[in-house]
Structure formats: structure tokens, C-alpha cells
Amino acid sequence: MGQVRFRSARTPRLRPATHLEEIVRERKARKPRPAEFPSILSSMRLALYEPDIPQNAGALLRLGACLGVPVDIIEPCGFLLDDRRLRRAGMDYLDRVDMTRHRSWRAYQAALQGRLVLLTTSGDTPYVEFSYRPDDNLLVGRESAGAPQEVHDRATARVAIPLRPGLRSLNVALAAAMVLGEALRQTDQFPVGRKGENQRT
After folding, report:
1. pLDDT (0 to 100) of residue 72
2. If exposure means fewest CB atoms within 10 Å of the residue's CB, which of 34, 132, 186, 201 is most exposed?
3. How far apart are CA 199 and CA 113, in angstroms?
4. Helix 20-30 and helix 83-90: axis angle, to 10°?
5. What span, in angstroms and rounded, lies between the C-alpha atoms of 31 and 34?
6. In whole angstroms, what is the distance from residue 66 CA to residue 26 CA?
7. How many domains does the chain have?
8. Bridge-partner residues for 126, per DSSP?
9. Is residue 4 part of a domain?
10. Is-contact 57 77, C-beta < 8 A?
11. Distance between CA atoms of 2 and 57, rounded to whole angstroms?
């Protein structure tokens, strides 16, 4: 977890990562969901294991909002969260994401339903060759260290994105978008709205 930061009285305090749900609730209260916006969600879920870069977390929350995929955040997070950084990445999509926060890896396992599919550079199956199910849980590890061995051991499957030799990995948000897109395509779960709804930016 991020270290405690001591600041003078003149310096604004940063909100801790545990206030992520509060930020989402505040945005929903200020800007109600439009009546015409479809609330249909995919049965597939995206999980973030102890995220340590707030900009990536915000981008992944936006991804979940746009594609109608619920997002699970497994704590502890590795950073102190400040509203500006989260909102810069998540923009005004944060009030449309279905997010669940889990206090620990153990708590997440207790709530887990369906298969756990881990995205990892050491995966033994190319992600486009894996057969996804509608209720799969796609999990990404920390940007800095990936996922620990206990997470690998718990995973039903480990999938990887083939890369050029000598290159280590993609940004975690980019990797998640690629794999989630393939999983939704295979299971026919891409959102289908009214004319023009899927063209919003």
C-alpha cells in the first residue's frame, strides 16, 4: 500500500484509495443517469488485483462503463487516490460503472462465481485461442508486479497476448481491453443500444 504522507496545513489532502466508491457515489448524485441510457450489464466481469496506478484504474473503470462490464477492485490498492487523477482517466463515465470493492484477495475469492481467467505474460494459452464463457471473470494483476503465485494457482486458465520477442508487456489497461473485447465477441455480449448510443465518445 502507499505510504502515509505528511503534509502542511496549506497543502490539500489526497483521498485514500478506500474512498473510490465515495467518489463514484458523489458523481452519481451530481449527475443522474439519463433515462434513455440502457442499464443492461454483461454477466462477464473484469477484476483488478491490487491496482497501483490510479490512471490505469480510471481507464479500466471507463472501459467497464462503456462496455457494460462490472468491475471488481481487489484491495489493498498501491496508491493514494486523488480525485483529479481518477477523474482525468475515468472522465464522466464513473457514474455509469458497476463497481464492487473487495477488502482482500480472500474476500474476493469468497464472492467469486464462475471461472477465473488470469491475464498474464506467463500464460500458456494465447488469448484468441481460449474459449470464453459468458460468466467468466477476467483478472489483471498489478502494473508493477503482476499477480502473485497464489492468484496463478487459483486461476482456471492463464491467457497471454503474443508479443514480439524481447518486449515484456503491454500497459495493463490496453491488455485488458484486448482480451475483454475478444471475450465479449466470442460470447456475443457487446452492448447493443438504440441508434446513435454506441457512437458516443
Report:
1. 95
2. 201
3. 32
4. 60
5. 9
6. 19
7. 1
8. 160
9. no
10. yes
11. 15
Between the CA atoms of 48, 54, 60 and 64, what dihedral angle is there, to the nearest 10 degrees? 90
Q: Decide: helix, strand or coil at residue 139.
A: strand
- Tell me how far apart the alpha carbons of residues 111 and 137 are, in angstroms, rounded to a whole number: 12
Distance CA 56, CA 143 (A): 9
* Nearest CA among 123, 134, 121, 147 for reference residue 180: 134
In whole angstroms, give the CA distance from residue 121 to residue 88: 28
Strand, coil or helix: what is 33? Answer: coil
Please report whether residue 111 resides in a domain. yes
Amino acid (one-letter) located at 58 = G
Nearest alpha carbon to residue 99 among 149, 134, 48:
48
Q: What angle do CA 85, 95, 72 make, to 5 degrees?
A: 75
Q: Are 87 and 94 in contact (CB under 8 A)?
A: yes
pLDDT reported for residue 192: 78
Domain that includes residue 74, residue range: 17-27+41-190
* pLDDT in the model for residue 12: 39
Quote the crossing angle between the two packed helices 54-67 and 83-90, to the nearest 10°: 40
Written as nine digits, the cell of 126 is 494465447
Is the model's pLDDT at 25 over the cut of 70? Answer: no
Q: Cell numbers for 111, please give them.
A: 464472492
Rounded CA-CA distance 193/198 in Å is 6
- pTM of the shown model: 0.76
Average pLDDT of the residues in 15-31: 57
For the chain, helix, strand, coil in percent to 5 are 40, 15, 45
